[in-house]
Amino acid sequence: MASTFLIPLERLRVAVNEIMGGFGSDSREAQIVTDNLLHANLPGHHSHGIGMLPRYANAFLEGGLRPNGHVLTRLDSGTLLALDGQAGFGQVIGQEAMQLGIARAKAHGSCIVALANSHHLCRIGAWAEMAVAEGLVSLHFANVISRPIVAPWGGSDARFGTNPFAVGIPVPGRDPIVLDMATSIIAQGKTRVAHNKGESLAPGQMLDDQGRPTTDPKFGVIEPLGALRTFGEHKGFGLALVCELLGGALAGGLATHRPASGEQRVLNGMLTILFDPARLADATLFASEMRAFIDWVKASPPQDGVDRVRVAGEPEREMRAKRLAEGIPVDANTWTELLAAATKLGRDPAEVNRLAGVTLP
């Protein structure tokens, strides 16, 4: 198993920001991307954290990621927006798209945003969190244009991406409900994390290059590649299909229907539905019924080995508090990949180490 560095948040932030300088990003973009990636690491979603930077570096050097990009409005009919991300950093494009949608939903009560051609939007739950912070409910259907990595239910090879789905629901007086999940049984990045840490996957998560069940994460990382499975068998496959059709074919104008091209870029299409629940129902009744249901569910006696019932968003908040207090763990293999990416981008890896406080053996 690979060794792990425990790096305080602020030290890791300045180190990652140093790497971001190699993309030619302006200071605003560099900070937005850095913060977004770290906000994935903090709650334990390392698959969408700083370990994505080597992939971003390769995509940039190939020309598939365009720094300092902004959303372009293709259609504006008030409560319907069609936007183009122009292959810009998804952290910036996603934020700008949500800001536009949130403003319209607050003004009109609802808004549907179709976002196309964004580079990797990272953790889709971040966009749901933006909405709930403004008192809005949001639903997000996203597809992934990259190499296919997920097998359809009953199939033996990869035919589409992890196709994430997210929902954010504000709960007055409580923490919000934020459901954020890949429709694959695990995110693709989790195979990279497991491979770098020298760990095995749980049974039932992956197929090898021959379509046989495997627990070896290398089949999600290096050739010959295998395929992830969808969660919940046919149910996860059904939701993945919906995300491809709505987030991809409709919002993005691009669905997956060909083998991998070898490009490193990761493009997302996303259909987002935003609405103000206070415009749709009695706000006081809605809030009281939500709280009553959440309390009822969480009062269920826990099973053996479980301390208590948690609802969507709680595990992430608990992990975030732990990481803020103790630092963010980064395995040695991932750190080596980050240093290699820094070198490709013309940044000094020794300076990255110094800023992070990492001493290599």
Report on this structure:
By secondary structure, this protein is an alpha+beta fold. The chain has two domains: 1-68 and 327-361, Hypothetical Oxidoreductase Yiak, Chain: A, domain 1 (Orthogonal Bundle), CATH 1.10.1530; 69-185 and 229-325, Ribosomal Protein S8, Chain: A, domain 1 (2-Layer Sandwich), CATH 3.30.1370.60. Helices cover 41% and strands 17% of the residues. It contains twelve helices and twelve strands. Helix 1 packs antiparallel against helix 12 (349-356). It is globular and about 60 Å long. The mean pLDDT is 96.
Topology:
Blueprint: E1 4-7, H1 9-20, H2 27-41, H3 53-62, E2 72-76, E3 80-84, H4 90-108, E4 110-119, H5 125-132, E5 137-145, E6 165-169, E7 177-181, H6 188-197, E8 206-207, E9 213-214, E10 227-228, H7 234-252, E11 267-275, H8 277-280, H9 283-298, H10 314-326, E12 328-331, H11 332-344, H12 349-356
Helix pairs in contact: 1-2, 1-12, 3-11, 11-12
